Amino acid sequence: MPEAQGAKSRSVLISGASIAGPALAYWLDRYGFDVTVVERAPTVRSGGYPIDVRGTAIDVVDRMGLLPRVQAAHIASRELRFVDGEGRVIGSIPPYELTSNQTGRDVELPRGALTMLLHDLTSERPIRYRFNDSIDTLEDDGSGVEIQFKSGDCHRYDVVIGADGLHSRTRRLVFGPEEQFNHHLGRCFNIFSMPNDMGLSHGGIIYGEAGRTAGAFAVRNSKDVFGFLVYASDDPPFGAHPDVEEQCKRTEAVFADGGWEVPRLLEAMRHAEDLYFDTVSQIRMPVWSSGRVALVGDAAYAPSFLSGQGTSLALVGAYVLAGELASQDNPSDAFAAYERMTKPFVEANQALAIEGNGYLLLPRTPQEVEARNQILASLAAGERDGMGNDHAREVHSILRLPDYTR
Ligand SMILES: Cc1cc2nc3c(=O)[nH]c(=O)nc-3n(C[C@H](O)[C@H](O)[C@H](O)COP(=O)(O)OP(=O)(O)OC[C@H]3O[C@@H](n4cnc5c(N)ncnc54)[C@H](O)[C@@H]3O)c2cc1C
């Protein structure tokens, strides 16, 4: 592959080794950059719920040579079943109707499977990973960025990229507090592993009432399932990095008189070792860069899991950002081009979370419960009205990837 103009041996520090970070590292390394990735966790975080790779992002993994391996990890969910408080089935939805995945092309795979594939791909290359470390202080003096790591080491980089997620520290250091950019979408969730003793296979089961939804989801025939407890909340109840005891108490209060398997889910949440709590939020920023520092993935534009597009936006953003850095001598020109090209795609996909059918999974009002039940009834009668899939599928693919290798 011809080296793109301007890469020379510029050094880049990427903070975060989940999806956006390693994808960006891969492309920058291919273009001849000297790449370091710093990750707070001791190793690549391999666990996690199923995520989707769709539309334009499929082209990105294809160009990385990963498509066959990503497709092999497809979990092929078959059914999302909805039950009432007594466990009686109200109806069911083929999951890909709900998520608008393009059957035969888009892929649903465990998040950890994708992070491992990306890490394996990048660890074959001369990319340095610094696990168990993170940026402590950052100083951009116009010609480079001085980094002091928490471990005590200091290094200077030409460019620094924050790929450190919804609660990005890089964003906080450069742009200020998260509250300015975090748009709460009215729900909080807990997700945790529990034994698959509901006989689930290739899909999930959901019990949703106005303002609270409980459920469980099995990846293929897994012996553990992902339990989840989601509730409506107009304001984010506490800070971005909440207190586990407080979040459990709050969830227990919301679900105190819940039917179906709610007591069992509450019990599993209490004892889970991998309990993951967050608010359902989007990150919306007027600009994604400042000087020699830019953001990519959830750090810059988390779309929330209501859109199911977080992973795809991270992969596409990483591809464009690397290509622009390789094509331009000046990082600020590269950042401006990356933003110009990617922002309309990001905003259209973020809008899916607001205008989409999130109420099917997480109804907040009796009216939304009623609308969900009508959809379930029409699906049972063989109708598809109201799913709105074609628009979402179009939006997943509206960005055409530039070719930076010519
Ligand atoms: C419950 C749930 C369900 C979801 N479902 C879907 C779905 O169905 N489909 C979909 O596409 N997406 C889904 N997502 C979203 C998806 O997981 C993210 O949007 C996607 O992983 C974005 O990747 P990222 O690399 O930008 O950020 P993240 O995956 O958040 O990674 C950030 C990385 O940075 C590291 N880090 C954090 N702080 C620091 C620091 N200070 N220093 C160094 N490292 C740091 C973290 O450890 C992590 O490795 C879901 C998210 C949640 C929470």
Structure explained in plain terms:
The chain has 406 residues and is an alpha/beta fold. 36% of the residues lie in helices and 25% in strands. The protein contains 14 helices and 18 strands. It has helices spanning 20-30, 56-63, 67-72, 95-99, 111-123, 169-175, 244-254, 262-271, 298-301, 310-327, 331-355, 358-361, 366-380, 389-396; strands at residues 11-15, 34-39, 50-53, 79-83, 89-93, 107-110, 128-131, 135-140, 145-149, 154-157, 159-162, 182-195, 203-209, 212-218, 224-232, 276-283, 289-290, 293-295. The strands form four sheets. A seven-stranded mixed beta sheet has the order 5-4-13-14-15-12-16, with helices on both faces. Strands 7-2-1-11-18-17 form a six-stranded mixed beta sheet, with helices on both faces. A three-stranded antiparallel beta sheet has the order 8-9-10. Strand 14 and strand 15 (224-232) form a beta hairpin. Helix 1 packs parallel to helix 5 (111-123), helix 2 crosses helix 10 (310-327) and helix 10 runs antiparallel to helix 11 (331-355). The model has no long low-confidence stretch (mean pLDDT 91). Flavin-adenine dinucleotide (FAD) binds at residues 15-21, 38-41, 45, 49, 51-52, 111, 134, 163-166, 169, 189, 191, 278, 297-299, 302, 305, 308-312, 314.
Using the alpha-carbon principal axes, give the shape. Answer: globular
Overall number of strands: 18
Can you give the mean pLDDT?
Answer: 91
- Side by side, the strands of the main sheet go 5-4-13-14-15-12-16
What is the distance, rounded to the nearest whole angstrom, between the alpha carbons of the first and last residues? 8 Å
Low-confidence stretches: none
Q: Biggest sheet, in brief?
A: 7 strands, mixed
Given helix and strand content, the structural type is: alpha/beta
Strand content: 25-35%
Helix content: 25-40%
| Structure ligands | flavin-adenine dinucleotide
Q: From the alpha carbons, calculate the radius of gyration and give it in angstroms.
A: 21 Å
Number of helices: 14
